[in-house]
Structure formats: structure tokens, C-alpha cells
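Issue 218. Parser rejects a valid record. Input:
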Amino acid sequence: MLERIEKIEAEASAAIGSAAGTAELEQLRVHHLGRKAELTSILRGIAELPGEERGAVGGAANRARKALEELLERRAAELDAAELEQRLAGDTVDVTLPGAPARPAGHLHLITRTTRQIEDVMIGLGYRVVEGPEVEHDYYNFTALNHPPGHPARMLQDTFYVQSHPEVLLRTHTSPVQIRAMETQQPPIFVIVPGKVYRRDSDATHSPMFHQVEGLAIGEGITLADLQGTLEEMLRAIFGPGREARMRPHFFPFTEPSVEFDVSCFQCEGGGELAGGERCNLCKGQGWIEVGGAGMVDPNVLGFVAGNGYDPERVQGFAFGMGVERIAMLRHAVPDLRRFFDNDVRMLEQFS
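Output the parser choked on:
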């Protein structure tokens, strides 16, 4: 029996020492030390042996079992360490690489891109960009811009007022910044004012919030002809060379005379018809596309800042304004202004 125990220990030790993995090692543990293992059977049968053999066989079997358990523990630690090293080598991650799959780079929204294009054009003409508050005072939004009390634009159905402060509102145009700019700078002044504005409108061509860019030029000897030339240069840069600007009489409280300005259609080249004789769908066959409003700054407006050098008897100038969404819609054939704010990626990715 003692020889058999020694043989079992030797065979088990050799097998454990050559085990290639933790799974194989577990199988060897069950085979040599499990409930059905031969060494376990010997330990259970010690009580059936003659009295003189029990001590020697029991001692040898227990020593063999303990030796195999220690050998299993050491071999398990060796295999665990080796497998960990193997996993670490195989799972190495370069944290400097982009995620998988790599996310596409973002891009500016079409409204932002259009605004910056207009800014670049006007900066090239010598204007500077100024900004002002979107929550405005009635004085700057209406009074200083020659809107008399009771003017329709002041009515609740057109303007968002702050309920607890009836003299405070969300600006309805960026024109208030013209007054603020003149309060801080003496003439001559050449500025453009981009920004968000708010009105109570909502349909395919109007939104409660939209973007405007306005321009202001004040100095000595500035005339309506200068306005015409500025508009032509700006519209050619935006819509392409060869564009013409047309001005039509209109009315705005803060300009006199006032005009609306159009650009010659860049789809039909101002002819009103497409190739094949079809009516141009962009300009509706007119050959012209309405873009915005303009005019010579009303002397009454200059009177509010006369103390800062804007004497209407000495200086004069022009102002113009247009909606950024309208420019973007015309340039990119977007049929509905609301598409700009729906955050539909399918639409936005077309302009990346």
C-alpha cells in the first residue's frame, strides 16, 4: 500500500507540474484529490486495514495529499500569472487612438457659417463687428429708433415683453445696437451687428427666434449712392459675381428715405426663365429676389445721440438689415426656415 501511495504521488506531481493551463489543472485536482480519487479512497479505507498498518498508511496518505495540495496551489499561482501576462499583452490599448468607430468631426451650423461669411465680407469693406444684449430696454429697441408711442411694432402681438418689467423686452431687431455703438463712438462709424432677434411669428418663412445682420455707416458726405454700391458689393460676394442690387421705395421708422433691396436672381441670371423656357421657381419669374431693408438714417434717430457728435446737420449715413436665415435659404435652396432648428442630422449633414 505504501508503494502505491508513493506511485500515486509521483504520477500526480508530474502531471501537475506539466499542466498547461488552469482548466487542465482543475481537472487534475479532481482526478487526484476529488471524492472519487484513488488517494481519497485509500484514506477512507484506513479503518479496514489491520491495526499494525493503519498508522503508516494513514500518515503516508495524508502527507501525499498535503504535498499535492501545496503543489496544486503553487502551480495555480504560476499559471494565473502567466495567463494574466498573456492577456495583458494581447489586450494592449493605445489610448491615444480615436474611439472605435471614430466619430466624425463636427462642423459649424449653416446659420453660423452664413453669418460669418457676411461678417467676412463686411470686414473686408472696412466695417467692424459689434454685439449687444438680446434682452433690451424699450428705449433702445423703439424710442431711440423713432418708433412713436402706439406704433404697431410695440404691440403685444408683435413683441415679447418681460411681464414683471414692461419696459424690458426681447429685442425685435439688432438695430438697438446701432444706438449703443453711436453712444460709445463718435463719427465716422462703420459697424455691422449680427445676432438673434425675437418676434411673435411662426411659419415656413418666420420663426419666433431668428438671426439678423444689420449695417450702419455714418459720416460726412455719405449718400444713397454709397448704400447702393455697398449693397451691390456685399450681394456679389454672397451670391456670386455679376449680381445687381435694386432698391424700391418703402417705409421704416428709423430711415428716411427708406428702401427695400433686391438681388438679381442668381438661378436665372435675372431673366425670369430657366433653360427650356420654364419660369424660374426661385424668383417666381420676376428676375429679382427680395433680400432686406435699408435707407438713410432718419435725422430724428441721430438726434438721440447728437451729444456724441452725431449732429444731423453735419453727418448722415445709411443703415441696412437682412435675415441670415433668408440668405441661407436662398443660397442653399432650403424650403422651410424651421428645418434650421429641427436638429435633423440628415438635413444638417448636407452642409458639412
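Fixed in the parser; the record now loads. The mean pLDDT is 87.
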